[in-house]
Specification:
The complex is a heterodimer. Chain A is mainly alpha-helical. Chain A has one domain (34-252). Chain A is built from 9 helices and no strands. In chain A, helix 2 packs parallel to helix 6, helix 4 (81-119) packs antiparallel against helix 9 and helix 6 crosses helix 8 (189-215). Chain A starts with a helix and ends with a helix. The mean pLDDT of chain A is 93. In chain B, helix 4 crosses helix 5 (132-145) and helix 5 (132-145) packs across helix 6 (161-173). Chain B is globular. Chain B has a domain at 16-99 and 177-258: P-loop containing nucleotide triphosphate hydrolases (Rossmann fold). By secondary structure, chain B is α/β, with parallel strands linked by helices. Chain B is 37% helix and 25% strand. Chain B has 10 helices and 10 strands. The chains are: A mainly alpha, B alpha/beta. Chain A binds chain B through residues 113, 116-117, 120-122, 124-132, and chain B through 65, 68, 70, 90, 94, 97-98, 100, 102, 104-106, 108-112, 121-122, 125-126.
Chain lengths: 256, 259
Amino acid sequence: MILPAEIRSFLTDAGSLARFTGRFFSQGFRPRYEMSEFTRQCYLIGYNSLPLIGLTSFIMGLVLTMQLRPAMLRYGVESELPAIVGISIIREIGPVISALIFAGKIGSSIGAELGSMKVTEQIDAMEVSGTNPFKYLVVTRVFAATLMLPVLILLGDAISLYGSYVGVNIRGTTSFYLFWSQVFDNLVFSDVMPAFIKSYFFGFAVGIIGCFKGYNSSKGTEGVGRSANSAVVVASIMVFIIDLLAVQVTDLLGLN
Amino acid sequence: MTTGKTISASGTGISPVLEYAINIQHLYKSFGDNHVLVDFNLEVKKGESLVVLGKSGSGKSVLIKCIIGLLRPDNGSIEMFGENITEINAEELDKIRAKVGFLFQSNALYDSMTVRDNLEFPLRRHWIKLSQEEVNKMVLEALEDVGLAHTVDMMPVELSGGMRKRIALARTLILKPEIILYDEPTTGLDPITGKEIIELMNEIQEKYNTTSLIISHDMNCVRMTSDRVVILLEGKCYADGSWEALQLNIDPKVKQFFQ
């Protein structure tokens, strides 16, 4: 049976990505460890993404609260607004929106950076200089993305809840203490942990896909642009797929 | 077909293997149905400056990347310093690479690093135990060799094409290599800058007594740098001899290059 070209190309890409991921696991935990490059990447990927994630999280919390208020009023449960917003942000909206923004910012920058290094032979130069470019460029970036995204999501969730507190107080008066009590009194372990765990998978997906697209870039500058673009698209889709799988797993484990 | 000057160790009393800096035997490399190198043989003597001349797409860059281990040949052997690099592991290959410089066609300077960091990078990777003082001294020495000591804290993007080529050459020199591989060293440069780079290559060859393997299709570069020229055609070593000998060759395919 001859498969259509698009399906063959998709399967080839999926196979290459699986091989690339396998290479990451086979090389990532063996010395030599590139600690200084890893620390630098944590700074670039984590610290430098905080303003963007912080701003979007604040707006998201504020807007979500203002959008929900009329509906809550209609059903006479306005006092439950902090609890509903808190659960929505922590369980789903915070991790997914932050991961999507992270995919846009970090996925594209990794894809473009490695793609540009590939087409200008900088990766070959690194190999000739006695450096394993896979460890130096890929392993450090994937680990940094995996570890930094959960931290960004935690901070983003806190900023988002503060945005929600501001939103609640635009049309009413709720004390800071009361707002946070209502949020945390209604949160349980199964709201927080699955969301926190899946954020590591989101970070890993963004890192590995950005690196895969950049590392396998070809066809000159046009290829670099294409790598950056497809890194964002594929990583964003992967975020939703992981989210879908995570909800199934938590459901099976009785955590929903 | 021209045989030209042949390399032989007979009568010198030195083992032929040790006399060669690079010894390539029966090398094959294909990309799908495209057979780039077919039973390619080449020996480069220590201290020799050999140019591999060929048309664009003839496989010159593939050959040089096989020699440095960036591409794996399908078959055949490549010996450097008595080691067959197609059979050794990554660690042993790195030890050999520390003694071989590679000047990339595109310079391949790390554009996110300063000139100093670009030069320090191979030093830090190969010679881990160097003190900062020693590193600074070696960086300055390499930059002085190419006449660009003042660019030490500049970024590659701030440099002209010729300056970037010189910095790439300084990065190649910093490990004091015994062999330098040049991939199209004058491509993309104007004739004056190209001539300056050629003169610099000759100065380096003389000063450090390195073995040079130069890939080029720039006839000016070939004439000015070569002790011996090899013409790469149809994946094979088609002709081999001095610049003067090949110029007088009557084979039409060889004549094409000199017309």
